[in-house]
Design goal:
mainly alpha, transport, binds beta-D-glucopyranose, 556 residues, transmembrane helix, Growth Hormone, Chain: A, globular, 2 domains
């Protein structure tokens, strides 16, 4: 493998390495293109805070429905939207993405991963057109709801698609690329808002909104040229299409041994899991065993919830106003800097996520973040209003963002793409993504009540809250998150079956699923996933059903 590919250093049992072809530049680029979808997520959540602060926007959208003239100091010529309208404009997006992500879980199994993302781009573009056309709150809100549904499709299914098509050795790095594009989206939104904010025509808000059309167009069009996930074809029993997809993704001839081996492995694993129906109810079966579906779904949803409880969006959604509250000048500039630190630090994870692993990043990243948060809180409380407290706040906010961007930002997405068995993978990723948006919404909604002057007025003490929730993140990662680096998604299933999260890092795969089915390998035994009972498995093995389709692959 070329040196530039940050591949995993996890040891593999003998004969295991040949399951996947070496990573080619082309295969790598195909996956990176899919990561571009993160731009939609980042830009869409980022542009609204700047637009709300624009004078032309206040003049155009304020006044009709609210008390006019407004006495609020931030009003423009007495024109300002009401608090309820502001909260609706901001939060309706998360509501749309929440439902979009959930629905995408079914859609991705019905029409395919790639097609769902393309459909998400189309829905998103319709929402953008409505927002651009809007001159009043009602149409803007409707447009953001529709666009949110599109972002929900894209954000849930991109992770699924990338995890399924990326070669295992670089899968973490590729999915981290998605987080990188989220951060670029956030930065671009801040820059575009800054550029148009002083215009006194509709271009001030229409330009930032309209630019998003381009991201969806690029992603949607580009995906037409990418293959569908081979695992989706296998789920539908179409092995020839799965072989062709794999051949395009791995840059190997469709009849090469690499493609045959990997296909056989995918099919073998699917066979083992195929008795599970893969409906929504199946996501909650299997009990609390580490390999049970319920345990995995709770893990994925909790991981995304904890990612939000690191407090990161306090900085990205309310940073500017918070910096003003504690008396810092240049609050807007500081926010731009934190957004830039976010972009600059994420690529570190491309390498560390494969070398150090997901679990290590989550544990040490949370320790880094909580340290910064408690320092900010303590100094801010003891020396409130002092220059020292101001500098500490700026410097440690940057360190905090550095820790988030290089660890929890990417790793939370990487892990949810890896922990679900194929029959419930689409729905598991969708539920986890929906959990991200739900907590994103909840935290975004309650935070102003904690820090606003006329409400909780917590000032720097709010970082005691984030420091405490980050401490929970350390405990959560240590006890519950398994190490999935360097394993195929099929081997992850096996690992969850055979070991506990705390020991998962040293687990070494010894037998491929294909070999297991053919009875090769010492101690090879069928795996237990979800609600598949041992009795059912034994029956299927006896009747030879499980080996049947592996033989079919040999004939593809
Ligand atoms: C989180 C977002 C956050 C972003 C910041 C993502 O992983 O899910 O809520 O705004 O990172 O880069």
């Amino acid at each position: 493998m070329p040196n530039w590919a940050p591949s995993s250093n996890r040891p593999q049992g003998e004969g295991i390495a040949r399951i996947e072809a070496p990573v080619t530049v082309r295969g790598y680029l195909l996956c990176i293109f899919a990561a571009f979808g993160g731009i939609l997520f980042g830009y869409d959540s980022g542009y609204i805070s700047g637009v709300l602060a624009m004078n032309y926007f206040k003049q155009e959208f304020g006044g009709m429905n609210s008390a006019c003239p407004s006495t609020d100091p931030t009003a423009y010529n007495g024109r300002l939207y009401s608090t309820a309208e502001k909260s609706l404009i901001v939060s309706i997006l998360s509501a749309g993405t929440f439902f979009g992500a959930l629905f995408a879980g079914s859609l991705a199994d019905w029409i395919g991963r790639r097609t769902t993302i393309i459909a998400g781009c189309a829905v998103f573009m319709a929402g953008v057109v409505m927002q651009v056309a809007s001159t009043a709150v009602a149409l803007l809100v409707a447009g953001r709801l529709i666009a949110g549904i599109g972002v929900g499709f894209v954000s849930a299914v991109i992770i699924l698609y990338m995890s399924e098509v990326a070669p295992k050795a670089v899968r973490g790095a590729i999915v981290s690329g998605y987080q990188f594009f989220i951060t670029i989206g956030l930065l671009l939104a801040a820059v575009v808002d800054h550029t148009t904010k002083d215009r006194m025509d509709s271009g001030s808000y229409r330009i930032p909104i309209a630019i998003q059309f381009a991201w969806a167009l690029i992603l949607g069009t580009g995906l037409f040229f990418l293959p569908e996930s081979p695992r989706y074809h296998i789920k539908n029993g179409d092995y020839s299409k799965a072989a062709r997809s794999l051949s395009t993704l791995r840059g190997q001839d469709v009849n090469s041994q690499y493609i045959r081996d990997e296909l056989a492995e995918l099919v073998a694993n699917h066979e083992l899991e195929s008795k599970m129906q893969g409906g929504w109810l199946d996501c909650f079966r299997g009990g609390w065993r580490p390999s049970g579906n319920l345990r995995r779904v709770v893990l994925g949803m909790a991981l995304q919830m904890m990612q939000q409880w690191t407090g990161v969006n306090f900085i990205f959604y309310y940073g500017t106003t918070f910096f003003q509250t504690v008396g810092l000048k240049n609050a807007f500039l500081i926010s731009m800097i934190t957004t830039a630190v976010n972009v600059g630090s994420t690529p570190i994870s491309f390498w560390t996520i494969e070398k150090l692993g997901r679990r290590t990043l989550l544990i040490y990243g949370a320790i880094g973040m909580l340290t910064c948060e408690f320092i900010i809180a303590a100094v801010g409380t003891v020396a409130e209003g002092s220059a020292t407290a101001g500098y500490i706040l700026i410097i440690f906010t940057c360190f905090y963002i550095f820790f988030f961007a290089s660890t929890w930002g990417p790793a939370a997405w990487v892990v949810i793409g890896e922990i679900f068995p194929l029959p419930i993978r689409a729905k598991g990723v969708a539920l986890s993504t929906a959990s991200n948006w739900l907590w994103n919404f909840v935290i975004g909604y309650v935070t102003p009540y904690m820090v606003d002057r006329d409400q909780g007025d917590m000032r720097s003490k709010v970082f005691f809250v984030w420091g405490s929730t980050c401490t929970l993140c350390v405990i959560f990662a240590y006890l519950l998150v398994p190490e999935t680096k360097g394993l195929s998604l099929e081997q992850v299933d096996r690992m969850l079956e055979e070991t506990v999260p705390r020991k998962s890092k040293s687990w070494v795969p010894r037998v491929t699923e294909t070999e297991r089915m053919r009875g090769v390998g010492a101690g090879a035994k069928p795996m237990e996933t979800g609600d598949t009972t041992s009795l059912e498995r034994e029956k299927r093995e006896e009747s030879g059903v499980m080996g049947e389709n592996v033989e079919r692959v040999d004939r593809v």
